[in-house]
Amino acid sequence: MAITILPPVVEDLGPYQNASDSDEDMSDNSDSDVEMGGVSLQKKRSHFDSTKLGAKFVTPGEVVHDDPQWMRGHGTYTTPLSTSIIATVAGNVVQTNKLLSVQPLRARYTPEIGDLVVGRIVEVQSRRWKVDIAAPLLAQLPLSAINLPGGILRRRTSADELQIRTFFNEGDLVIAEVQSVHQDGSASLHTRSLKYGKLRNGVFLAVTGTGGGGARSNLSKGGVDSSLAVPGSASGTGGVVRSRRQVWTLSTAHGGGEVDVVLGVNGYIHISKHADGEAAASSTTENVSINRMEELVSSSIYSSQNDEIHPQTRREIARLTQSIQVLVQSGVRVDEDTVTGAYNASLQVDLEVGDDEDEDEGREYLEGMKARRIIELVVKGN
Amino acid sequence: MSSQRQASSAAQIPHLSPAELSYLYTSLSLPNSPIRPDGRSPTQFRPLSAETNILPGTNGSARIGFADGTQAIVGVKAEVEKTVLVSDTLDVQHEAQGTGNGEGGEGSSSAVTGGHGSWVQMSIEIPGFRDDDALPVFLSEMMRESLVGSVGVKDKSGEENMAGGLKGRLVINKRWHWRLYIDVLLLSQPLSYPLPLLSLTTHLALLSTKLPKLKSKGEEDPFFDDDWAVAEYIYPRVLGVSNTLQVRPPVTLLVISVGENVIFDPTREEIAVADAVLAISVTRDNEAGSLQPLKLLSIRTIDPPSRLTQPGIPNSENVNMLGAPAPNENVAVLNPATGEEEVPGVWRPRRGGVKRSVIAGMVKTVLKKGGVGEEVLAGLEGVEVS
Fold first, then answer.
1. Which of A166-170, B109-113, B308-312 has the lowest mean pLDDT?
2. B346 with A311: Cβ contact below 8 A
């Protein structure tokens, strides 16, 4: 069947609860998630009860509380005329001692110094690039903050300014690090490392990143372990969280070889074939001087030509892409463990499904039942 | 900022880097088994959710949501209007004389059976576009054209089955007719080319459209039954009879070709690398004895955005790679689909043009028995019309 037409779903419950309430063998945690979802919905209309702050969902302009004993936190404001705290974003109320803040359901990425981000060049100016990193404002990448080809260290001249487009052009994907954050929240990036530069040999996908001032990072295990998560926010939107390793190499099944995964903290992800050149360079670091190594690697930094990539590798990259999409749609956080888990789960699901579904069409499309099963496996694994 | 926002809403296609475009193109053009970024098979559609009769104030309505989050609502409103016999309409009448008439019988050749295309009005609203922008105007005309162009013919039993198609169905008598307003509303930003979504939703809305039952006879002023329960579907639904003999509104499918491969329901990224983008309108062929279940109504080519993309630079020409190890892989290879020389792994914007066999393959995949077109129509008929 080429087309699947489904009846509309009631969108009261988050997608994660949808997945869990149809499976009896889920853990107890997820069952309590479902109940909590119900409670928070009822709470929305009922009168505010200060003992159940966490379960309250507010929309912008709604009064969170009017008792002067509370202090206002992120996502709220007060007017000088009254003592009431009013929400500025749609989300769940979070209480920290006497501080009331609203954790937004969806937010753009807030840059912080040291974040590894994936960005797309949207504008080339005379001495800098403007980069889209899913933040409220475009980030800037000055010409002085990139490595010159060959690793030469010198002042940037007007000749460099003239050929600025040969380094990065509009549309190019770059992996960079946040160097500084300005007063208005916009970021300055740099690519002064051998790890950074132009991305190629793979696919790009955008998911939710760390928004709302990293508030989501306290949503440990992405709404799975509800004892740690803030009540009511168990249906967290998932996405990429700051973690120890944002870039790693995964060895894939079915002869796909090694695949590099870059999880930008801003929610932009790049999955590509593992670059052999870099591996060779790093393995021979012992007998190569620093400068020579820089030369070796940086020769490919500004290339826009793809290497030869085998169909098996492409297939596994597509599978990995979908595994991440499944995670995001189910509100599970995306990091090294969950991505690897989801990838392995998708392989296992394929083995399970493979027998009773004889039609070969769209076998690799992960949705519906398959997605549910993958999430189940990932959640169990953690 | 405002100019930037406008540019991004008008630009259907995201900025993609040459490396990404090249990767996508090569994956999609792998002979016989393209690898789509989301793992679908070439003819597989993304799952969509559909419901009908969602607006109480309309004669028929539908909502469809695609898996990528785009959503459209269509409402159909019908109005009785006095037929003004201009010369144009008369011409249509004369042409229609040959096909006979559906209302009066007795072979009165002067009966209006032809109807007029302007009795169907379609307006499309897409966020970020003015209603006189090129895209909404082009889309609505393309969909209206296939809608009024589809003509019903006599079925096996010799009974008239919507002679003149939708146009003929709108005729009440010689002096009165229905006027149909089809309002299409795209609720989300157009993430990909919105044509398939809008077309499927319009199809579903028309399937659920009902007109009040006519009580008056012949050339009297029209007078309708108040009871909505006895209202008749504009596209009659006969239960138990094989669906293939019924007249159905057309659907327009978006098909792209990448290399020699034909791909359905393309995502935005897939459209960005397409060699050719076609909008193919089909409907059920209810002519007795025809071999194919579907009839081709129209094919439109859509400007493939791939020609506007940035070209990639081969390593051999990259000034930043002068010190690099000798580039031995930069041997230009002939692309069999376009007949141009290309360095593998380097993106070259498409210059347009596609082989005749590829176009034929695209049409065949839609039309053939058990093909994609039939499955889509069957799927849409399966949606419960309440």
1. B109-113
2. no
For residue B276, being part of any structural domain is answered with yes
Among partner residues B49, B323, B345, which is closest to A6 by beta-carbon distance?
B49
User: What rounded mean pLDDT belongs to chain A?
Assistant: 74
Here the tokens at position B288 are 């007795």
A253 pLDDT tier (thresholds 50, 70, 90): confident
Q: Are the beta carbons of A6 and B48 separated by less than 8 Å?
A: yes
* pLDDT classification of A28: cutoffs 50, 70, 90: very low
B320 CB neighbours in chain A (<8 A) are 149, 166-167, 301-303
Task: Note whether B364 contacts A: Cβ–Cβ < 8 A.
Answer: no
Å between B41 CA and nearest CA of chain A: 4
Min mean pLDDT across B108-122, B164-178, B241-255, B268-282 is at B108-122
Whether residue A300 and residue B321 make contact (CB cut-off 8 A), yes or no, is yes
Output the domain CATH number for residue B221: 3.30.230.70
Asked if the structure places residue B43 within a domain, the reply is: yes
> What would you report as the CA-atom Rg of chain B, rounded to the nearest whole angstrom?
24
Cβ–Cβ under 8 Å, residues A131 and A119: yes
Q: Which of A110-124, B119-133, B233-247 has the highest mean pLDDT?
A: A110-124
| Residue B339 within a domain | no
Residue with tokens 């307003």: B181
Chain B residue with Cα closest to A204: B20
Long-range contacts of B238-246 (CB under 8 A, 24+ apart): B243/B284, B243/B378, B243/B381, B244/B284, B244/B286, B244/B293, B245/B155, B245/B156, B245/B161, B245/B286, B246/B161, B246/B284, B246/B286
Residues of B in contact with A8 (CB under 8 A): 49-51, 63, 65
Q: Check if the interface score ipTM surpasses 0.85.
A: no
Kindly report the CA angle at B219 between B218 and B225, in degrees rounded to 5? 65
Backbone angles phi, psi at A376, to 5 degrees: -55, -45
Task: Kindly report the average pLDDT of chain B as a whole number.
Answer: 76
- What angle in degrees, to the nearest 10, is found between the helix axes of A369-381 and A336-356? 130
Of A2, A304, A365, the CB nearest to B38: A365
Domain count, chain B: 1
CB contacts, 8 Å: A368 with chain B: 47
Residue B323 maps to a domain: no
Which pTM was predicted?
Answer: 0.78
